[in-house]
Design brief:
The chain is α+β, with helices and mostly antiparallel strands. Among the domains are: 90 residues; 105 residues, 2-Layer Sandwich (TATA-Binding Protein), CATH 3.30.310; 87 residues, no CATH class. Helices cover 35% and strands 35% of the residues. The protein has 9 helices and 21 strands. Strands 4, 6, 10, 11, 12, 18 and 19 form a 7-stranded antiparallel sheet that branches. A 5-stranded antiparallel sheet has the order 1-21-20-3-2. A 5-stranded antiparallel sheet has the order 13-14-15-16-17, with no helix packed on it. A hairpin with a 6-residue loop joins strand 16 and strand 17. Helix 2 packs across helix 4, helix 4 packs antiparallel against helix 7 and helix 7 runs antiparallel to helix 8.
């Protein structure tokens, strides 16, 4: 006789649909690890490489060279958080999490939201942990166990001889809250990356600049608003040693028609916010010295040199005028440097408004100009990101709650006794749940022994 094998052949196996295969790939843990690793590396690149939105391009060119900067620009690493590579990575993580939630988490949530199914004794015996004992009277035991478990904080559901004991149901919310928090976090990042923008401006007191004219990173969806920013005032607070302690800038934000939207003051670590935009104090420096030479106004650009600011201007083919100033209120020191002399010579020290005659020139000091560096940022997804942190923290709290679900059933046997079966399916905190089920089984055994002793003559 020919025996047919019960093992299905490859042809008999159900073929996987193309969509099912793609869903498995998109929901795979391996893809999650790859995407999160790439996202981490890109974030580290954004933290290590100075970004064009916060750094002058000349500094990047000096640091990385022309070829290195070209490569970084091509890869989008000089503006990582707005680069297509970063946005695509975040979008793929979002899709991966969405598919994983739909295929794996959603069925569990639906099962939890549905009424708990009562199990028969045979079904309970198939659970990972199950215990069985025989008793004389099922009703008496059911009431005793019902009352005892109620006192221990369990909710008890009954259906005839079947019972379900539950406690700590809030603990199952840990996974949904964490998944939802990650969804909200990624949504906030995508919203900020698509519609947010940032930029930097250097302003002198009284100067106004339009946003589209500033060095800005434009949003990928929409355009920069036609706002105008004015620097009303600027000051510096110093320590007794003369080192800078704090910088302050008074700002006014105007609409395209010149109408005032808001005004306020920003300083380091204390931004000024208006129309959803945060303005940060990023720099403060003496930008130029203003002189009048024989009635002609002259501005000498300054560069920081140690604790002073210094500017150089040629007066003749073999003569340089050097201006050095320490602070805005400090007097200016003027030096002459001739080609044949190795060292410059100090010839005047002037306070603001003071004049000095050096034949054949008359020099007047009109003060030093201040440039205040302002960085602005519009981040519409930030409140959403904060909300995601609340959800993630809630998930971390919920995971600490033990969850208990224990099934019990009393079935009458042919001998007239009752087989009392208890069991559980441990998942999280499995040792605690199994211990609770074992304790319940031990209580049933103890009750059974007391009943048998009472029946002895």
């Amino acid at each position: 006789m020919k025996t047919l094998s019960s093992t299905p052949t490859q042809a008999q196996l159900p073929a996987k649909s193309a969509s099912g295969g793609w869903l498995e790939v998109l929901a795979s843990l391996r893809l999650t690890c790859i995407l999160l690793t790439a996202l981490t590396l890109l974030t580290l690149c954004g933290a290590w490489i100075p970004q064009t939105s916060q750094t002058d391009p000349s500094e990047l060119l000096e640091r990385f060279g022309k070829d290195g900067l070209s490569i970084l620009n091509f890869l989008g690493l000089t503006n990582v958080f707005y680069s297509p590579l970063y946005l695509v990575n975040v979008l793929l993580v979002f899709v991966n999490l969405a598919v994983c939630t739909a295929t794996r988490m959603a069925p569990r949530i639906r099962a939890r939201l549905q009424k708990a199914d009562f199990l028969s004794g045979d079904e309970i015996a198939c659970l990972p942990f199950a215990s069985c004992t025989f008793v004389k009277g099922a009703a008496e035991h059911s009431q005793l166990i019902h009352d005892k478990m109620r006192r221990q904080g369990f909710s008890v559901k009954t259906s005839g001889s079947k019972m379900i004991f539950e406690k700590g149901r809030i603990g199952w919310l840990a996974a949904p809250a964490t998944h939802l928090g990650l969804f909200v976090l990624l949504a906030g990042i995508l919203i900020s990356a698509a519609t947010g923008y940032n930029g930097s401006v250097d302003l002198t007191v009284g100067q106004t600049i339009d946003f589209p004219q500033a060095h800005s990173e434009k949003p990928r969806i929409g355009s920069l608003p036609h706002y105008r920013l004015t620097l009303d005032s600027s000051s510096r607070e110093s320590y007794k040693s003369g080192e800078p302690k704090q910088w302050y800038s008074g700002l006014t934000l105007l609409d395209h028609g010149g109408r005032k939207i808001a005004s306020g003051q920003t300083c380091v670590n204390s931004p000024f916010s208006a129309a959803g935009i945060d303005f940060y104090q990023s720099d403060w420096r003496l930008s130029s010295v203003k002189l009048t030479l024989d009635g002609n106004p002259l501005s000498i650009p300054l560069k920081s040199m140690g604790g002073d600011s210094m500017g150089v201007m040629p007066l003749a083919q073999d003569m340089l005028l050097i201006a050095v100033v320490h602070e805005r209120e400090s007097p200016v020191r003027l030096y002459l440097k001739l080609e044949e002399t190795p060292m410059p010579r100090l010839f005047a020290q002037l306070n603001k408004g003071q004049t000095f005659q050096v034949s054949p020139l008359t020099i007047k000091y009109d003060g030093a100009a201040i440039t205040s560096g302002i960085h602005y940022k519009y981040d519409p997804g930030l409140p959403i990101v904060y909300a995601s942190f609340i959800l993630l923290m809630a998930g971390a709290i919920f995971v600490s709650f033990p969850q208990y679900r224990i099934w019990a059933d009393a079935e009458q046997t042919a001998e007239g006794t009752y087989r009392w079966t208890t069991g559980c399916c441990p998942t999280k905190f499995s040792q605690l749940l199994t211990l609770q089920a074992k304790t319940l089984a031990a209580e049933l055994t103890k009750l059974n022994c007391e009943e048998v002793a009472a029946l002895e003559p």
